[in-house]
Amino acid sequence: MINIVSKGVDKLRQYGKLVMFSHTIFSLSFAVVSMVLASKGIPDIKTVFFILVCFLGARTGANAINRVIDAEIDARNPRTKGRQIPRGEVKKGEVVAFTAVCFLIMLYGAYRLNIICLLLSPVALVLLTGYSYTKRFTFLCHFILGVTCACAPVGAWLAVRGSLSLLPLFLGAANTLWVAGFDIIYGCQDYDFDRENGLHSVAVQFGVKNALRIAALLHTVTLICLIAAGILAPELGIVYFVGIAFIAALFVTEYRMVSPENLVNVNIASYSVNQLVSIVFLVFGLADVFL
């Protein structure tokens, strides 16, 4: 019995690593802030619950299927060959079944929210599955990932309101450009491997130096979109804009950590710093609404 429990816990741990559960915060913050702004407070418990169901189902399924689709590439890349599928710790068939369950959960959540969410859910599924293939044929893969993540704030708004306005579109644009920017930074470390294996990225297309410049430009426009969202939302005020100032400082910090000649800190700059960005956005956004 103890061995069974131990194996079960180990399997859960492997799946947690597989789907990078710690990275959930990246778009969750945008989804939660969008939900709260759409409802001008906390919506009913049913809506909150099924928004979270959709988000977690979509995000977990997308990361799982990404590992399946990229398994062969990961096995060739020295940086990623230690991931669960290349090492044989998790089987592809298991992950495909797990992904199917996650996406079914997302579809059920969309059904329970409203007809708009249900009708748009196939579009989300195409993005969630398809973005993993895009680096095989376009350097715009980072932006497609960003658009996929932006389904979170836009979808949360639709779940509450059933219609769109400029505010969720600015939040979605900020989410898109922010994710694309730090994914470009992250992709710089695979520049040599991607070139040798015919994979596409902004770094491969324009060089690492220009890739970092493009990422910085995207993060600058992200700040502009966040400021625009703050102006459009009457619930947001000085606390929110103080949070945006902190986010700007974090962006400056991440670009001081990396350069074309020094990519040692890419993981910290692209992931760790931006996890803080997400937390700051969530905390300051909610504080301004509820305080």
Overview of the molecule:
By secondary structure, this protein is mainly α. It is built from 13 helices and no strands. Helix 2 (25-39) packs antiparallel against helix 8 (166-187), helix 3 packs parallel to helix 6 and helix 8 packs antiparallel against helix 13. The termini are far apart. The model has no long low-confidence stretch (mean pLDDT 90).
Summarize the structure.
This protein is mostly helical. It has helices at residues 2-18, 25-39, 45-69, 71-76, 92-113, 115-130, 141-161, 166-187, 191-196, 202-206, 208-232, 238-257, 266-290. Helix 2 packs antiparallel against helix 8 and helix 3 (45-69) packs antiparallel against helix 5 (92-113).
Main β-sheet, in a few words? none
Radius of gyration: 19 Å
Give the helices and strands as they follow along the chain: HHHHHHHHHHHHH
Distance between the termini: 50 Å
Helicity level: over 70%
Alpha plus pi helix count: 13
Spans where pLDDT lies below 50 across 5 or more residues: none
Identify the notable features of this structure and list them briefly.
291 residues; mainly alpha; 0% strand
SSE layout and pairings?
Elements: H1 2-18, H2 25-39, H3 45-69, H4 71-76, H5 92-113, H6 115-130, H7 141-161, H8 166-187, H9 191-196, H10 202-206, H11 208-232, H12 238-257, H13 266-290
Helix pairs in contact: 2-7, 2-8, 2-13, 3-5, 3-6, 3-7, 5-6, 6-7, 7-8, 8-11, 8-13, 11-12, 12-13
